[in-house]
Amino acid sequence: METTNIAQGAITPKKVAAIMAALIAAGLMAPGDRITGISKKSTNNPWKRSGLLKIMQDRDFTIL
Q1: What is this structure's pTM?
Q2: Contacts of 16 (CB under 8 A, 6+ apart)
């Protein structure tokens, strides 16, 4: 597995192994299952949130 610099926030094989162990222990994965992608949770972007709120407020939820 290829990783980049840890300072840049790369997910190392050690972290992937810990995530897999936790999922197997919780019964959410079988020992033969594979993880196809892991990404970091993004931080809250206030501009994105306000844009989504504006879109939702503009929608018409009435039933015709």
Answers
A1: 0.42
A2: 1, 35, 38
